[in-house]
Amino acid sequence: MKKTVVLYPGLAVSHFVPMMRLADALLDEGYAVMVALIDATMEHDARFAATVRRRIASSSSTPAALTFHTLPRIHDPPAVHTDERFLLGYFELVRRYNNGLLELLRSMPPGSIRALVVDALSNEAIDVAKEMGVPAYTFFAWSASAVAVFLQLFSSAHVLNGLPNFKELRDSPLNLLGVPPIPASHLIREMLEDPNGEIYQAWMSSQGKNLEANGMLVNTFVSLEARALGALKDSQFLPGNKFTLPPVYAVGPLVEGPGGETKQKNDHACLAWLHKQPEHSVVFLSFGSIGCHTEDQIKEIAVGLERSGHRFLWVVRAPSHGSTITLGADSDPDLDALLPEGFLERTNGHGLVVKEWAPQVDVLRHKAIGAFVTHCGWNSVQEAIMAGVPMLCWPLYAEQKMNKVFMVEEFGVGVEVVGWQQGFVKAEEVEAKITLVLESQEGERLRARVRALKEAAAMAWNEEGGSSRTAFGHFLLDVTA
């Protein structure tokens, strides 16, 4: 009977892709992998839907050990809005699908399921594993540093019988084990809500749920986050000893490989354009699959790029309205209306603007790229490190403000674009920070640090004692125990 691990990925590209890399690692070790899918959000997220379809299609050429199962749609699913109530809808959606997941597991051959691995935001499914009597593991598509912050604050809330209102603390630093001081204002928006409100309480409850797992898989590697991972193994990590931390396995970096993204005509064009540029001369600007700026901010970026005189490749999404960031479906930006008059003509030859999306992994690993302006999403951070590219940190949403702190203060792989804190980055700063990274000695120091981490990332999955390979082996031993 084939030993099987069931994977239950999160409902976003940034959570789905690394878990599929985990699937590949399991297949390499001889496991069968069943991927259980919720498709309720795919109609609202075109890129997520395309990513899932592409992976399912590719599995047709894979041995039958990899299978996908879409859970039956529930009646009248809860809405998952993109405002501050996002996670409430998300958690309720996952909770409502527990019955479908339970029926799937019951339909599988008795004794075949060795473990259920669930995305950390889908941890309501841990209850399904308990009912089935199979081990449950959570998978974090975040940094170990973010995990350390969230779990310590959850535990402290119970020790102190309630936490202060983080929003009122503003930029006061939070001093926690394993991480540099974090301004309270940099926490995720759910933690800046009223501590007695349902949004804050739902987030805290979710963090506690992760502690019920048999173990926690984190998409990171020891050389990058040694301090945070050390803290997660410290017996004094959770204050008050009221909670027990399950084993932590650092199994990253699990990111999309070169050539793994769909190529479209414009994407081929951007790579062809890069072939013509000098080595390390191009700054790449991309803010994730769901992040976008206001029209005024887009124009300001354009002015800064033009003034810098440096070569650039810029992914532009349709603008948000009235806020710095919006989450939603793809739309086609009108570049002529968005960009300053004559900008495309004046920068023709040393700059290229593409709409909506570019094959980021292939772009970052191109020899022409010298810097990366990023929203600090964890996948993007690791992709840049694996390409040896220093970063300009411009966080937008989720835990990205925290990642910015880790990237600048702990990892030493980027510089902060500070204007984001006032909600608007001026052209002067865009120009100055690009010049700093591409031309200054500080930029050279950043480049050297990232290149060292690039080598460490490559070694993490090395069969001869790589840290992530070893951690993955320990996970498999625990699963089969």
Describe the fold and architecture.
This protein has 481 residues and is of the alpha/beta class. The protein has two domains: 4-256 and 462-480, Rossmann fold (3-Layer(aba) Sandwich); 265-458, Rossmann fold. 42% of the residues lie in helices and 14% in strands. The protein has helices at residues 13-28, 46-58, 86-96, 98-107, 126-132, 144-159, 166-169, 198-210, 226-232, 265-275, 295-308, 335-338, 343-346, 360-364, 378-387, 400-411, 427-439, 441-460, 467-480, and strands at residues 4-8, 32-37, 66-70, 113-119, 136-140, 173-174, 182-183, 215-218, 248-250, 282-286, 311-316, 351-355, 369-374, 391-393, 414-416. α16 links the parallel β14 (391-393) and β15. The two termini are 17 Å apart.
Secondary structure layout:
Layout lengths: L3 E5 L4 H16 L3 E6 L8 H13 L7 E5 L15 H11 L1 H10 L5 E7 L6 H7 L3 E5 L3 H16 L6 H4 L3 E2 L7 E2 L14 H13 L4 E4 L7 H7 L15 E3 L14 H11 L6 E5 L8 H14 L2 E6 L18 H4 L4 H4 L4 E5 L4 H5 L4 E6 L3 H10 L3 E3 L6 H12 L2 E3 L10 H13 L1 H20 L6 H14 L1
Parallel strand pairs: 1-2, 1-4, 2-3, 4-5, 5-8, 8-9, 10-11, 10-13, 11-12, 13-14, 14-15
Antiparallel strand pairs: 6-7
Helix pairs in contact: 1-2, 4-5, 6-8, 11-17, 15-18, 17-18
Protein name: Glycosyltransferase
Keywords: Glycosyltransferase, Transferase
Organism: Digitaria exilis
